Amino acid sequence: MTGNGEAKGRLIVISGPSGVGKTTICHALRGRGRIVRSVSATTRVPRPGEVHGRDYFFLSREDFVARRERGGFLEWAEYAGNLYGTPKEFVKAETERGYCPLLEIEVQGVEQLRKLGWDGIYVFLAPPSLDDLRRRLEKRGAMAPEVIERRMKVAEQEMNRKDLYDHVVVNDVVERALAEVLAILDRELQGGRRD
Ligand code: 5GP
């Protein structure tokens, strides 16, 4: 179950505060070698341009809770008033066939995966500073000031949980941070090809 068998794939977990640039990094990792992106479920309303089944599975709270009760999520969290969860079957099936599911999740989810003992490469993407993070959230445009405040509060707590990770990468310049993440994956997945 923990993905420790020789032929099994490992989880690749990219975490860190909202707005730090996880999505950009994860986008660049997609399709490399045996990396397959896990699409999460959420009760959050879609942002402009987001597509059901590609960016998230957008569920009602009722459907999310029913799925959670059935044990459908590997981990889940309530984040800034919305529920988020990683579909369990996808991750199990992909690791079983030797692929590495890429999970872009927040810190409470990482805590659960660690407790469950899931083998993986756990990377925390950190902003150069909290001021920098605030500027990035403001630049997104679509967020109300109170939403930004809520996410900044959570971010401060998340920055104190770096102990959960194997690697901390500062996203100062995205190309540099991506190169660092790729080097980490190369080292950790030795033998696994990433074209
Ligand atoms: P957003 O609303 O900005 O898309 O996501 C909010 C936060 O939830 C981000 O930090 C994102 O990485 C995290 N998140 C997305 N999907 C999941 C998930 O399946 N599980 C957990 N624990 N966090 C998630």
What does this 3D model show about the protein?
It contains seven helices and nine strands. It is an alpha/beta fold and 195 residues long. The protein has a single domain (11-190), classed as P-loop containing nucleotide triphosphate hydrolases (Rossmann fold). The chain has a five-stranded parallel sheet with strand order 2-7-1-8-9, sandwiched between helices. A four-stranded mixed sheet has the order 4-3-6-5. β5 (73-79) and β6 (82-87) form a beta hairpin. α1 packs across α7 (174-188) and α5 (130-139) packs antiparallel against α6 (145-158). It is globular. The model is unreliable at 1-5 (pLDDT under 50). Residues 18, 22, 40, 44, 75, 77, 79, 84-86, 104-106, 108-109 line the site of guanosine-5'-monophosphate.
- What does the oligomeric state look like here? single chain
Euclidean distance between termini CA atoms? 28 Å
The CATH architecture category equals 3-Layer(aba) Sandwich
Average pLDDT confidence is: 92
Largest sheet: 5 strands, parallel
- Tell me the domain tally: 1
